[in-house]
Amino acid sequence: MTQLSQTRDAVLTITADVKAHAPQVLAELRANGPVQRVRLSSGIEAWAVLSYEEARAALTHPALLRDPTPSEKALTDAGYTAHRVGVGIGGSMLQEDPPNHTRLRRLVAPAFSARRTKLLARRVHEITDGLIDAMAGHDEVDLVQAFTAPLPITVISELLGVPEGERDQFRDWTAAFLATPSDAQRAAGAALNAFMSALVDRKQAEPTDDLLSDLTAQSNAEDGRLSREELVATGSLLVIAGHETTVNLLGNALVALFRHPDQADVLRSRPELLEGAVEEFLRLDSSVEMATPRFAAADLTLGGVEIRRGDVVAVYLAAANRDLGDPFELDVTRPHARHIAFGHGIHHCLGAPLARMEATIALGALLNRFPELRPALPLEEVRWIPSGMMRGPLELRARLR
């Protein structure tokens, strides 16, 4: 595998096996150059950006946009439809460039401010304690099912105003939607959109004190600041991004602590390190392995590679983060761990403060309540998300005592 950056032939297909060993595989690929040709699990061929500096440059490059027009044929051939308005999260801020992105983000941003996040902390503590109490009667649990999934789903559902008892399918829908383009993926996106559309109708008729009611009021405004399609797409995006990233942040952090039990002991004895440790977990194993694709609106050069108009560019946040220091070392005492796990530039994750807060509270409570917490199966047997842009364990069997 030499001179890979000088050919347009795909040199690596992102399979389930590659994703299971992504940190090692991407590090080997990066050793050949910061930008490499790959075939994504969707079947789309793309330029993979693998180094920290090139990743930051790509995420803010004026010619790398979310507008897929130059790449439409490649996306259509692969069955990729999530970018289209009215499908999945098409029409949400994640799929838009300025000025639409600016307008949509401004409407949602106040709900995820540092001040609002701090006010949510007490409720996150309550949810965390309830989940831990429910686990306490068991010797062994699947931490994903019992803890890392229900906590973020509950938090984002309450923030949006999704009634309890109507959230059960969120995890299945989002997992399918974030996987390889397929009939199942498109069906999951349609199901989530239909649910969100019906919920919007209810918020219009009977608004409550929640984010979706606030956004629905914006949609009803005479100046039309938020169209119906944008409202549904934004709600769907917040369901997906608002919990899936944190589910996997928590799962990846626990795998890392299971691999390095001495670091778990450090956090138990020095809980003041937890906030900084969350940054280290994000650096070591980003829950968003690959940022949503960018599309070249003009020819450009990145990392010594000539990228042509219409080419797809995939920024591998996970690879970029491991481009700093020892890529496989976990050090929860590391000051100010640098990473771009939440992206960079105008699409930097709005929910980053909320995810950080949830992770700090959840990991601290879990480590404190279960001092003998350990994996129930060899970590080599952990099954990882097999396709798509996310990285995280599908299940994580653990002994509590």
TrEMBL record:
CDD domains: CYP107-like
Keywords in alphabetical order: Heme, Iron, Metal-binding, Monooxygenase, Oxidoreductase
Pfam families, sorted: p450 (PF00067)
InterPro entries in alphabetical order: Cyt_P450, Cyt_P450_B, Cyt_P450_CS, Cyt_P450_sf
Top-level taxon in the UniProt lineage: Bacteria
SUPFAM superfamilies attached to this UniProt entry: Cytochrome P450
Family indicated by similarity: Belongs to the cytochrome P450 family.
Family annotation (PANTHER family): CYTOCHROME P450 YJIB-RELATED (PTHR46696:SF1), P450, PUTATIVE (EUROFUNG)-RELATED (PTHR46696)
Protein name: Cytochrome P450
